[in-house]
Design a protein that fits this description.
The chain is of the alpha/beta class. Helix 5 runs parallel beside helix 11 and helix 12 packs parallel to helix 14.
Length: about 475
């Protein structure tokens, strides 16, 4: 006999739960027939069902029932409009329900949705070719997948095979995904309690706002920090260093951008050790930072590039892109990454449409110009509020960090949570880094299709929320 145990109602959003009583606890057998998808629940039943039937997989859920989305806004079931300053999960780069994306999905779902993984469609081959055309040589071989974690998994697996080694290096505040190898290279969260991940090493994150190695004038001495980090790696390595995987701007790590020159020096460290350099541009790729690819600022070309979130504009599409030489070596060694949705035609067609829009509307230029407007507004907020310690980032991927004190630079998760809640009440969704000790850093990544008026509205709401925050 099936029964329900526990008290799942404890995680219902507080603003919903405080006036409502829910319970899933019963000893009766489940005899209710399955409901139809067309049967809409009441708000109370919605939250009760959520408490009873959803696995909690991270931070708390936003206490709103989202009914639809369009452009830069999402709309709740009760008709409230919320400005989305994070493009969904940093993915809806063209805004929600972009007409070109909608038209592509409607057209392609009726003619070619999914295929056997060994079959190819024109949309897949076209997307692989066009990604190669958008990238510097010799990056020209693409594997089309679904998520950022999967593309990083594929990249790490390829790096291990072609080098014949198994050790992976990543930043200490990295986030590369929650599948096995990707999670093993993720240090900002998720390690505790899941068992050992041998052969994985962290190096210090070069954070100019919080320098650990400093020059005589107090600035970050990133070269000395990098030397120290790799000295520790060398001391721990068994001599089997395969790759280093990095984000050009660490997003979950707190919108941290390593200084110019850092990645050139990092690439040199990799070459000296026979390692491959993997650059994870899940959030920075495809015009968001004001360039097609964020790594271009640094004058490097990675051995393997991974794309995801922005490539599908909100749909599950990712890519691993590498050189012909590496692909040939991997193939000769029997590289295997055969998945259910590899080379799926529907999302590949969407990816082609994304590239069309980015190219035709010069979204790299748009992101730079809007990014300057956004940065000016954020700097103005910083200048008027002592609790804003830093503004950082590029293009339409920027962040602010709230602090208790500008001198000590001590962050405040409590203040971050308060501003997040107040922004939502005022009609702005702000994505605070939901990690202990990092809850005072906001990630701001509106769609590239956003307008100046929408940015101004978001800045106005953010300014008001910070103004109303209690003393930290």
């Amino acid at each position: 006999m099936l029964s329900r145990i526990g008290a799942p109602c404890a995680w219902i959003p507080h603003s919903v739960a405080k006036n409502t009583s829910f319970s899933c606890i019963t000893n009766a057998p489940i005899v209710r027939p399955m409901t139809l998808a067309t049967e809409r629940s009441t708000p109370d039943q919605f939250w009760s069902d959520a408490a009873c039937h959803l696995v909690r997989y991270g931070g708390s859920f936003t206490p709103e029932i989202i009914d639809r989305a369009a452009g830069s806004f999402v709309y709740t079931a009760d008709g409230r409009r919320i400005l989305d300053f994070t493009s969904g999960q940093m993915s809806a780069i063209l805004g929600h329900c972009h007409p070109a994306i909608v038209e592509t999905v409607q057209r392609e779902i009726a003619r070619l949705d999914h295929l056997f993984s060994g079959m190819l469609s024109r949309s897949v081959v076209d997307l692989a070719r066009r990604l190669a055309e958008s990238l510097p040589a010799p990056l020209e071989k693409a594997l089309l997948l679904t998520t950022g974690a999967e593309s990083n998994e594929a990249a790490i697996r390829m790096a291990k095979l072609v080098t014949g080694k198994h050790e992976i290096v990543a930043f200490a505040k990295s986030w590369h995904g929650m599948t096995h190898a990707a999670a093993a290279a993720t240090y900002s969260a998720g390690h505790r309690g899941y068992g050992p991940t041998p052969g994985n090493f962290a190096i210090p994150t070069p954070n100019p706002y919080r320098p650990d190695f400093t020059t005589a004038d107090g600035e970050l001495d990133w070269q000395r920090q990098l030397d120290y980090g790799f000295a520790l790696v060398d001391a721990q390595s068994s001599g089997s260093l395969a790759a280093c995987i990095v984000e050009p701007i660490l997003s979950s790590g707190g919108i941290i951008e390593p200084p110019p020159g850092y990645f050139v020096a990092l690439a040199r460290k990799c070459r000296e050790r026979g390692m491959l350099l993997i650059v994870d541009e899940a959030q920075t790729g495809l015009c968001r930072t004001g360039m097609w690819y964020a790594f271009e600022r640094d004058g490097i070309v990675p051995d393997i590039l991974t794309l995801s979130k922005t490539l599908g504009a909100g749909l599950p599409l990712a890519a691993m892109i590498t050189t012909e030489d590496i692909e040939q070596r991997a193939h000769a060694l029997g590289y295997l990454f055969y998945t259910t949705h590899v080379s799926d035609p529907l999302v590949a067609a969407v990816g082609n449409t994304v590239l069309d829009v980015l190219q035709q509307e010069q979204m790299d230029v748009r992101a730079r110009e809007l990014g300057e407007f956004l940065r000016a507004g954020l700097l103005d907020i910083r200048d008027r509020h002592a609790v804003v310690g830093d503004v950082r980032g590029r293009g339409l991927m920027q962040g602010i960090e709230l602090v208790r004190d500008r001198e000590t630079r001590e962050g405040s998760d409590v203040l971050g949570a308060h501003v997040t809640r107040r922004c939502l009440e005022l009609g702005l969704h702000m994505n605070v880094v939901q990690l202990p000790g990092m809850g005072s850093t906001f990630r701001i990544a509106p769609p590239l299709t956003t307008t100046r008026d929408e940015l101004a509205l978001g800045l106005e709401i953010l300014d008001q929320a910070i103004s109303e925050a209690p003393p930290s």
